[in-house]
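Bench notes, afternoon.
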Amino acid sequence: MSFSTPTAGHPRFAVAVLCFGGLTAALTQTLVIPIQAKLPGLLDTSAADTAWVVTVTLLAAAVSMPVAGRLADLFGKQRVLVGTSAILVAGSLVCALSDSLVPLLAGRAMQGMAMGFIPVGISLMREITPPRLTATAVAAMSATLGVGGAIGLPLSAAIVEAGSWHALFWVATGLAAVVTALTWFAVPHVHDAQPGRFDVVGVLGLGVGLVSLLVGISKATTWGWGDAWTLGAILAGAVVLVVWGAFELRQDEPLVDLRTTAQLPVLMTNIAAVAIGFGMMAQSVVVPQLLEMPAETGYGLDQTLLQAGLWMAPGGLMMMLFAPVSSRLIRTIGPKVTLMIGAAVLGTGYLVAFFLMAAPWQLLVASCVACAGVGIGYAAMPTLILDEVPTREAASAVGLNALMRSVGTTLAAAVMGTILTSRTTAFGPGVEVPTLGAFQLCFVAGAVAAFLGVAIAATIPRRAVVAPAPVQREARTAA
């Protein structure tokens, strides 16, 4: 006999499941931060090698987002969501069972691949929600990118303090298993698969180019911006991506339709995503370091890792709380102006931090203001993209936008790291710490990036909305 999916008539529950899945995928990205300094001893290897435990997840996520989007357009979004959440289960389990570097890196790469869940989930929202709910659903799902990372730090620190570091990944395994089951049973499958060919060569070209470029950027603080390895990796990545772009333009069914993404509304939205992604990440890098800096420096706030995470956590909640605000703004004044408002609020948060950094509660206020801007702006970007691209390319286009945000966050981490390590002062024998001016310069850089995002968003032309094609839910069959 046949029957419909359990929640075919309950889109709110399906949206909640997708948001929970996005939150879980984003949370795994920050799981290892509390144990990063201990990993060389835990894995019996060098600090340089264990740094790849974070980097490999970033690289895998960057490549996976546009790839998952294209697969979703070809084979159906719900199927790809189940697949990415299953990969998250497998990757978390590999990490939980690991006691050496190589399997841990493999598991972390798989966790990074699961980040494709978020852009695919965003692109599915319009197909499973009534119009009155769509903007709120897209806003909530977009916010999970920041919320997961924000709450991941204090949660991970608490888990590590209570038990073994392996417990981090057992918790992640359990959460991912729940996401997989709920996605299979609670998220409707719709007839959204499109005939076409998967561009394997395009995937390889994009992967090589992105990995090389992002490795050069992410390692610039360690290797030095003028180092031959840094320049070589960035240049090689840029060359490969140019060749990849030329190849994609010659394909009838490319991995990413560059002609569509070259349209001004899409192009400028993606460029704005780099600036706003930079602005979001900067405070995530700088504020915890300032909170944990020893009070003896005269400007450090002497907080533990767990305390710093707790001071940061409300910022993540602000992103989610402002998702409904963003959806209301999108409906009343449009996504373009909403994106400009979000970026302006984000920049204001950095200005608050520049003038108020003498106490943890002051940084909490600044972080909440900045995160409110992220919550407003992040929802507007996929809405702008979805309004401009054909339904058959929705998932891959949103995936590319998520990739551009990822490029911005990677660049922010490298630039903030460079500023903090280039402006230091002696603090005890052989110990150098960032100066007060270094932290202030980081806040200025974050503000400049955010307000640059406002200026870029202002250039996005108004275009007619592309109405989504009607879709039907697919009935499941049981014997």
